[in-house]
Each structure stands twice: as C-alpha cells, then as structure tokens.
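hey so i finally got around to running the thing on that chain from the lab meeting. sorry it took forever, my laptop kept dying and i had to restart like 3 times. anyway pasting the input first so we r on the same page abt which one it is
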Amino acid sequence: MKNSTVENKTLNLIQEKLSAGRLPQWVKYDPEIFELEIEKIFSKTWCFLAHESELKEHGSYVTRYIGNDPILVTRTRTGEIKAFLNSCTHRGAKLCTADYGNSKNLTCPYHGWTFNPDGELIGVTAGNRIYGEEMVKDEWALRPVPKLDRYAGLIFGNLDSNASSLDEYLGELKWYLDILVSRTDGGMEVLGAPQRWVVNTNWKVTAENFCADSYHALTSHRSTVEMGISPDFVSQAGFGYQLSLNNGHGLNLVLTPPEVEGPKYQGLPEELWPMFERNLNPDQLQFLENLQVHVGNCFPNLSWVSIPQSTGGDSITTFLNMRVWRPIGPDSIEICSWVMIDKEANEEYKKEASRAYIISFGPGGTLEEDDTEIWTRITESSKAVMARNKDLSYDNVLNYLMGIDRVMPIENFPGPGKAYPTWLLDTAIRNFWEQWLKMLQEN
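ok and heres what got predicted. didnt touch it at all, straight out
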C-alpha cells in the first residue's frame, strides 16, 4: 500500500476548519488525499456489492468493486452467496469481465484455469503434464473477500478481516433503512441490471449530495417541479427531518406538510399497505405514510433516493434508487445504479416504477442530468490554482455553516440518532466529513 505524504499537521488543520463549518476546497480532488482514502477508508469499511435478487439461481454472478479491488459475487451450488477477488490465482488476470451472468464454471481467458462458483480451482490446462499430480489445487482457490454479510437482502463486503460486524456498522441507520427495504413480507427486488456510467467528479461530492444536501433541490431541480415531475420543494421547504447517525451515515426525510394533500405511502400500491402495518413499528409506519422523499448515504459511498415521480398525467409512481459511487481517481467516479421495488408490487406498477426511474435518475434522466452538470462544474473549478491553495486560508474554504450552533436536535425523537426539525441543514454533511477525517487520521 502506498504511503501517503499527507501530514498529520495538515489533517489537524482541516479538522480545525471543519469544526468551524468550513472545508478546504482542495481536499475534494487532491491526489494524495485520494490515495489515503483508498488505504484508510475503502479498505476498512463495509461497502455495498449487490442485492440478493440479482443472484436468483445457482451459478449466478455479478462483478463489482470495493475501491480499486474488482470483486466477483457468486451464488454457489448450495445456494450460498460468496465473494472473491476477481483475479485468477495463476497470473492475476481478471477472471470475469461481464457485468453479470450465470455459469457452471468460470474459466480464465489467459491460461484456462477454471474455478467453480465456490471459488475452488477445478481445472488446470495440461495440469498433470505441467505441474504433476502433486499440485494442491486447494492452495490456488480464488481469494475470498475477508468479510461478507447481508442486511435485508443488501450484500456488503469488507476488506478488513478485523472490522466490526455489518450489524454494528449500520447501527442507527437500520431503523430508517427498514422503512424502505423491510416494509413488505418479501422485501425488495432489483428491476433489470444496474446501470453504470462514468462522471468526472469526486466520490465525496456525490456522497454528500445524497447524504443530506436537499437544499440544492430548490434550485438545481426547479425545472422538474415546473414540469410537474417532482414535488414542489420550494413551497414545502424544510418540512421534515435531517438525521445525523453513527459511523458517518446521514439522511433526510422530506414529509408532506399538514396543509398539503399528498399521496399516502408515497403512492405505493394499496395492496402493499397491510404489509407495511405488519412489518413496521407505529413510528416507522407514520413516517412512511407521510413521506415524500427518503434520501441519504451509508458511509462511505452507498446512496439512495426514494421519491414519487410522475410518468405523465396524474399518475404518481415511487421507486427506490440505490447507487454506489465507485472511486476511479481524484476526479472520476463510476456510478452503479439500481432501481428497486417491493417484490409483491403488481407487474404494471413495477413497469411504471422502472420507467419513472429512467426518466428521472437514470443516466439520461432529468434530475440526474441536473446533478451531473453541477458535479462536473465543481470538478472544473476545484482544479483552479486558487482552490488548490493548501495554506487553509479563508479564501479557499467552502461553506458548511447551515444550522451550526443554531438548530438543535429534537428531544425524544422516535427514531435513533440525532434528528433535526428541518432538512435544510449541513449537520449530517458535517457528520459525513467528520467520519471521513476520523478515518484518515487513524493509525
């Protein structure tokens, strides 16, 4: 692992600025910071890999990433889900290049070594003639991801064998995730394959955007409101809650104001409503009943948004979009984006949910294009000499002051974490950056 040249003194100065609600602009795109993030964050945290509905049959596989590490996730012959470094143990070639598929065995295109979905080496080209019968194939099995676990169908991996459990890592976030992924008897399913595209920005920019920056919706997404596609964020500004949670997680719950008539349960099919009542506690159910937008980020780079969208006419359709911001470089990410819906929803609703996602948060969607344009503008301006000035003077810091020392958390809030009485805040975003800095400073 490359040793970072970022000094503790510099990190301490960043901490000083962040505590005052200011963040040096250069940290978002600095190459040395990026290398430190790969070492200290992406090799140490639980990262989202897949949803179990993508691996329905024995022999199914998908290819994903944790930081720079290509990962192969498989469904074995016995139905178990496993994950491995997607690299042949002979010469290191990437074993599987397809995004997904189903195969009884996987053969390396370089020298023909063959592995089964359990990661076992079962075939070596001309093996006995080259290596002799004494070759121990078990020693050359695929290398498993050190830790693998699931929560409500969501599959996570961790490269650190000493990491705490996934349950502990998700912590307070589970209560809010359950409103989305555990509200029906069968849970969620992925509709189609996830879409992937590359954007010239940094993973932290996109993660904080979803973590709690609903403020941008008032301006960036105004056109979708005017077209009747999205809720009117301006007239309903701030009604709801921002949650600052442990381990850097954060989210916004945008609720329908009492005087506004909105769709019950986000307009989800009525046949699902009895399941909501069975699977959620009364407080969770009340949030879902009045929910407009559920948007957030699981540190470091798993984000989601659930939002009612119009696909034409008076109909409203809600989907769950989960996405991973895979870091490619300081100024480049690959977005891997899933559209999900409750398994028990009727087929017509599923089709409309998929369509609503495509026209809003798909790679060519209205809201996605709004966001992508802004993210690339941040990249362009952050490469400027003045922005990269590292003396941490006032001139190169960005404003994260919204709500600081002014908006206090709610006492006796029904859910865990620190809840604030408006979603127009930077509190959860500062919490994200504080976790980021904490991990960079460790050891």
